[in-house]
């Protein structure tokens, strides 16, 4: 049974919803339900699959809903995505949208009702972790499941918990460690663990899981975590541990006696070696298990396949829930809600590897078309340009320039938001409006290695891994060996390769980029603006007259924003120390 099929099973499993999805006011509190009901759920293999599926659904869902609607902020942002606050996408129109508010005044621990305005639904993490622990602790009760299968399920739950902790680690720093499902007899006021203890917990879970998990599953179990996923979570955690935000003698803001919650207290080069070794382990595993970076010599098609085609040879883990998004249409939704920023388009190069120059004064639309056609394949696989049919869905009426246009302005809701319209996850999609979000792609670990070996002053090794990504993109090989210059090249590759995949927001913070407040997250935000032949919106090329680049709004940045605030309701309970500045 596929994960998405199991998720459907959850909807008709009322006993599971009553016992395992119940949620009380305290995020660590034991949900309502009796041991008898738990015994019933774990009485047979078939029944237990629903509990396992719920663990997957909760653990993988947070932070990846690209349609951006989470009215209760269970997962994090309401009516926004990480890309709206990372600098990848430009502003939203309405002042009640979290992306709009964070871009104007930053994240907050309290929106006035006790809920945070932030990139994460903090309490939801522990709801997911509790579900994982319930499965891990009760799977041995299943009578018709082999001992080997039970150990595998336990390893899966450890991996899912490690994933949730890794996601919290890069957002908050040290967080409370909950290693079992809590009962009424347990203290639920668990303080934050240090940064090191949180990292050690993630690594321990991953190591234990990797020693048990299989490297593949039958087709009917696609979507479950493999040994490679456990290795990937460990590698990502160690990379963030090595980057400057945490790998420093002093924290980004002084936190007094709590500095160890947000900083390791020293700058240790060995953290880069640990990150490199962990990512190399992912590659070694992948290359012996039929996973590889897709490179057939057709860069647009190869990249399009890697980011959009389900079960392709590059994806280690995807969110397999192909949800029905109702009236949501990725081609037109929200106008500016899917409008690429000028900062993001500036990360891409031309197909020959050189930088593109964009107009700063009104310039004929014909020049815009010529420049767009010169862009590298990854841009063409990720965005559509004004008046030009989507390159990643050629000769498809569903993705032509008219279908991609908004009813008022191509650029977006406010008329000035977009340097490109989102098409990335719909390569050769036709009428399909769903996609499977790629949580871990193999390309990540090549860039991990390039970054780590450059920081270890081994440029030749760094370039060998960078070459794999550049070659797939159809771009010239990099020969730069100066550490600072190569660092900037690698960071640019991250921005391009993982556009809208949930990386940029954390990357720019953990790199502590000097320009983070000057056009990335904060500062002047630019976009393309157009004039039209008839003074109104352009749908096809003949409607456009000129284009230029213009500042369209000013984003907010402050050092407090490096890490995420904990909800004020949890702070007021007296057991969690708030991150500095909130």
Walk me through the structure:
The structure is a single chain. By secondary structure, this protein is mainly α. It is 39% helix and 7% strand. It has 20 helices and seven strands. The strands form three sheets. The chain has a three-stranded antiparallel beta sheet with strand order 2-7-6. The two termini are 45 Å apart. Residues 1-35 and 407-416 have low confidence and may be disordered.
List keywords for this structure.
mainly alpha; 3-stranded antiparallel sheet; 20 helices; 582 residues; two-stranded antiparallel sheet; single chain; Serine Threonine Protein Phosphatase 5, Tetratricopeptide repeat
The secondary-structure element order is HHHHHHHHHHHHEHEHHEEEHHHHEEH
Strand order of the largest sheet: 2-7-6
Q: What's the end-to-end separation, in Å?
A: 45 Å
Please identify the top-level CATH class of the domain at 3-267.
Answer: Mainly Alpha
Strand content: 5-15%
Average pLDDT works out at: 88
How would a crystallographer describe the biggest sheet?
3 strands, antiparallel
**Portion of residues within helices:** 25-40%
Low-confidence sequence ranges: 1-35, 407-416
Q: How does the helix and strand content classify structurally?
A: mainly alpha
Query: Total helix count?
Result: 20
CA-based gyration radius: 23 Å
């Amino acid at each position: 049974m596929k994960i998405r099929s199991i998720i459907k099973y959850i909807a008709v499993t009322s006993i599971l919803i009553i016992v395992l999805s119940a949620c009380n006011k305290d995020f660590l509190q034991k949900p309502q339900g009796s041991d008898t009901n738990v015994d019933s759920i774990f009485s047979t293999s078939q029944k237990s699959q629903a509990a396992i599926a719920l663990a997957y659904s909760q653990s993988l869902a947070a932070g990846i809903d690209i349609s951006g609607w989470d009215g209760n902020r269970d997962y994090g942002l309401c009516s926004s995505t990480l890309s709206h606050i990372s600098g990848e996408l430009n502003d939203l129109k309405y002042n009640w949208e979290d992306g709009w508010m964070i871009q104007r005044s930053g994240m907050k621990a309290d929106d006035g009702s006790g809920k945070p305005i932030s990139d994460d639904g903090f309490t939801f993490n522990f709801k997911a972790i509790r579900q994982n622990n319930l499965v891990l602790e009760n799977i041995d009760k299943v009578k018709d499941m082999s001992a080997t299968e039970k150990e595998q399920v336990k390893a899966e739950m450890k991996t899912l918990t490690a994933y949730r902790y890794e996601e919290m680690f890069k957002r908050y720093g040290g967080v409370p460690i909950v290693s079992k499902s809590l009962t009424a007899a347990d203290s639920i006021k668990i303080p934050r663990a240090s940064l090191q203890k949180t990292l050690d917990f993630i690594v321990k879970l991953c190591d234990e899981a990797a020693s048990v998990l299989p490297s593949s599953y039958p087709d009917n179990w696609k979507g479950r975590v493999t040994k490679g996923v456990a290795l990937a979570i460990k590698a990502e955690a160690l990379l963030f541990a090595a980057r400057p935000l945490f790998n420093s003698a002093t924290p980004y803001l002084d936190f007094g006696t709590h500095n160890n919650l947000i900083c390791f207290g020293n700058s240790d080069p060995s953290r880069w070696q640990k990150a490199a070794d962990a990512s190399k382990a992912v590659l070694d595993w992948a290359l012996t298990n039929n996973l590889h970076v897709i490179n057939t010599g057709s860069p647009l098609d190869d990249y399009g396949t890697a980011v959009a085609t389900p079960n392709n040879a590059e994806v280690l883990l995807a969110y397999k829930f192909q949800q029905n998004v109702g009236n949501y249409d990725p081609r037109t939704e929200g106008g500016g809600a899917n409008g690429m920023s000028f900062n993001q388009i500036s990360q891409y190069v031309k197909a020959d590897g050189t930088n593109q120059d964009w107009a700063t004064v009104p310039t004929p639309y014909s020049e815009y078309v010529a420049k767009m056609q010169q862009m590298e394949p990854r841009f063409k696989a990720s965005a559509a340009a004004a008046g030009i049919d989507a390159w990643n869905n050629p000769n498809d009426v569903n993705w032509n320039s008219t279908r991609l246009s908004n009813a008022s302005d191509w650029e977006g809701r406010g008329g000035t938001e977009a340097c490109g319209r989102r098409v990335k996850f719909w390569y050769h999609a036709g009428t399909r409006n769903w996609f499977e979000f790629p949580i871990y792609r193999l390309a990540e670990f090549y860039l991990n290695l390039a970054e780590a070996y450059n920081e270890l002053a081994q440029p030749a090794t760094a370039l060998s891994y960078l070459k794999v990504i550049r070659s797939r993109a159809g771009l010239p090989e990099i020969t730069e060996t100066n550490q600072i210059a190569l660092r900037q090249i690698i960071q640019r590759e991250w921005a391009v390769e993982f556009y809208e995949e949930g990386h940029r927001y954390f990357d720019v913070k953990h790199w502590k980029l000097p320009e983070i407040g000057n056009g990335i997250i904060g500062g002047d935000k630019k976009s393309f603006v157009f004039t039209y032949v008839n003074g109104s919106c352009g749908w096809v090329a003949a409607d456009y007259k000129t284009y230029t680049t213009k500042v369209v709004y000013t984003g907010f940045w402050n050092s407090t924003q490096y890490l995420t605030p904990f909800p004020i309701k949890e702070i007021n309970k007296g057991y969690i120390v708030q991150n500095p500045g909130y």
